[in-house]
Amino acid sequence: MSEAVAQQAEEQETEVDLSIADKVIDKYIDLPGNLMPVLQGVQDAYGYIPRKVADHVAERLNVYPSQIYGVLTFYAQFHLKPRGRFIIRVCVGTACHVSGAPRIVETFFDKLHIGHAETTPDLRYTFEKVACLGACGMAPLAMVNDDTFGKMTVQRVDEIIAEYNKRPMK
To answer: What pTM, to 2 d.p., does this model score?
Structure first.
């Protein structure tokens, strides 16, 4: 994570509105086995799970913080630092790999100035290499949030970035 993103994350950590988490917790408080739905709801609300919120969830659900962090670090669906508005995923599975995915990954790295699992300082993009996106017939494949780009080429990387640079951040 770049220094700017780390600094921005720290600043955001100090400004966390716990009433948002409380609304999620209140929704599931009487549900047996409520930890996963609470954490999923909190992440949906904040875009990630801030440390102060994780500690607050532990306190409200009367569980040890270590239990919360055990779940958050075990499941790949949870994120402990801010992510970009646009999540770019490039498949690096076998079909995509042999069809040119490594060059596409490197081109995204070069254009966005971030690597795997990193976020741009402006929080516009997060980039992830993924094992499979389940569309081998369209290899190589990239996704931006829910938009799929099959038969990817290095040249299309610029087009995709230009398109998402035009879109609003919220």
So the answer is: 0.77
